[in-house]
Amino acid sequence: MKKKLVAGLVAALFASPVLAFEPFVVKDIRVEGIQRTEAGTVFSYLPVKVGETMTDDKAAKAIKALFATGFFKDVRLEIENDVLVVLIDERPAIAAVNFTGLKAFEKDQILKGLREVGLAESRIFDRALVERAEQELKRQYLSRGYYAVNVTTTVTPLERNRVGINFSIEEGDVTKIHQINIVGAQQIPEKELLSIFELRTPGWFTWYTKNDQYSKQKLAGDLETLRSYYLNRGFLEFNIESTQVSITPDKQHIYITVNITEGNKYTVSSVKLAGDLRVPEDELRKLIELRPGDTFSREKLTDTTKKISDRLGNDGYAFANVNAAPELDKEKQAVAFTIFVDPGRRVYVRNVNITGNTRSRDEVLRREVRQMEASWYDGEKINKSRTRIDRLGYFEDVTLETPPVPGATDQVDLNINVKEKPTGNIMLGAGFSSSEKLVLSGSIQQQNLFGSGKTVGVQVNTSKINKVYSLSYTDPYYTIDGVSRGFDIYHRKTDTSSLTTIADYSSSSFGGGVRFGLPIAEDDYLNMGLSFDSTRLTMGPYSPAVYLKYVNDFGERNTTTLATIGWLRETIDSRLYPTKGGIASISAELSLPLGSLGKLRYYRANFQRQEFFPMPWWRNTSLMLNGEFGYAKGYGGRGLPFFKNFYAGGIGSVRGYDSGSLGPVVYDTYGQRSNLGGNRRVIANAELLFPMPGSGFDKSVRLGAFFDMGQVWGEDEKMKLGDVRYSYGLSLTWSSPMGPLKFSYANPGRRKSGDEIQRLQFQMGTVF
What we know:
Belongs to the BamA family. By secondary structure, the protein is an alpha+beta fold.
């Protein structure tokens, strides 16, 4: 006897309370109609098992549970001689997802997005998911400015209960911003206001930046920029009344209209301090950037409250609350501010916790931390700790947090989280010139050996001109006080016979030394060293007379015992992506007159000053200024060894000129020019560094517009401004996945006959 119990979900939901059958004991359970689903899966959803009593209520629950899986489009239960038969009609599986007309996106990128909404190969087909996927696809196109996009979905049945899904896409053209209007701008020209917007009408570079395509997020950012622009210029009552974004019927052009009310321009009448100051009022008043008579600026007011809050934080008041209350005089168009100071409770730092250092040891970071545990909270020391850790160069990112300690009102923890970056460096240098053609060099350096903070470097240069093999080692904390110690060993061979820019000679040197670094202040270091060098010179058939004379006077082999001393001040915020701060250094070396261990008699001194200035009109943009001066001379009746001369030209000095090509020159009997170098060198550089347009504020890619100038003079030459060469051009630096890349293209200025030009220069490497 065969009896149908329930047919489909509707019967289960709306079944009569009267039983459709008499309860019975299930002798067996049989599943029919399944193709991909395992029978065990069906059994797991049934509320009854063999030997148990089947009821009308259990039948309804079984159907609801099986439908809820989403695997089936129809479920029926039947009884056959006390055997429960479960008849299944499975939903088809998705065999493939294809696209036609897809051009604006990579297929893999779209498939990943559809997978996130539940549509992917081998998954169960669901018409609702297909509709969601279609809407998601349209949303992705709209985010790229394709407002005329049309998506048609086709579902094709295939064998073995499968379907193929195809999205046919008519992308159309990208909808561009045709016009942006600011209605109500009277005291500031509309053209000036539009220049601060990120969104703009099509221009020279909008094909790359995509800023001519409407974005709700970008518009919100532009409106906030507009608000800040007015508030920083005294328009205290400025207001954005409304914003309209409209699109033409053909979906080709977008019009944006911003309606504003400028209000009056206010000046500051007075600034008062009130509340519990805890710091001498005279000291706090020095931090106030707004003065009576100044035009109101929200930026300066914000900076003032921040500086006061930071100053209180230096004394342990980590949660100080500083607010400025305005009092407007609309008749006089003046505003008075009362800055209320609530220092809150003074707090201690309980623990300093470090996370994220999977490779670097804790001590490498802790020795840079200036905020001590169990001491008063000090905002300045905490900021200094972050700067010092970032300056190590071992981490991509350093973040600090000071959460309150649960259950305590006067304690916080200092949590330092770092993101490790590869600290091994395999560098390859390359350059082109008419004389050397392609020149390659390389070095291997591990700045954080086994996470200890120690540095080991090996340099190998096997070019035809220079062969260098060197090994260096540095322990930055040889003593617990921060005294560093390092060793250097090298073997160097130079052969300039194939060069047209450097005079003909060859040399072979070997040597080594030890050096120490002594911290004398928070950012100041004193460096000292002692080294030994032995150099053998060999003259070629085209060596200049000045080289031959030196060898005749002092011999082919020279030994040097060299003492070095230097001072370094380093205040840059990051070695990897510096934006503010600077480097100042003075270094000097003196050959010691130690008989056979010190035949040479000379001294060299070099001064460098480099500073980064953040530009307030664009985030992560900074101006780098660099100046260098070098001077060298022989003593004790001996001249400066020619192989100790200064050189200029190329990367690191004056780009656009061949490496070492600036300065005194000589000509052989064939009229071939060779550079001698000199005993005085002046270098100056200015470079504006800014993010790559379209990359947001990603610091790993930076463009630069530079101006370089410099020259080298010989001992018998007078330093004249007319001799200085200069160049200007563009640079690009990229911390790529395969290593740091540097490119520059320069246009040499004040070029004279015989100058060796090298417009394109680059350096590349890889990290490990």
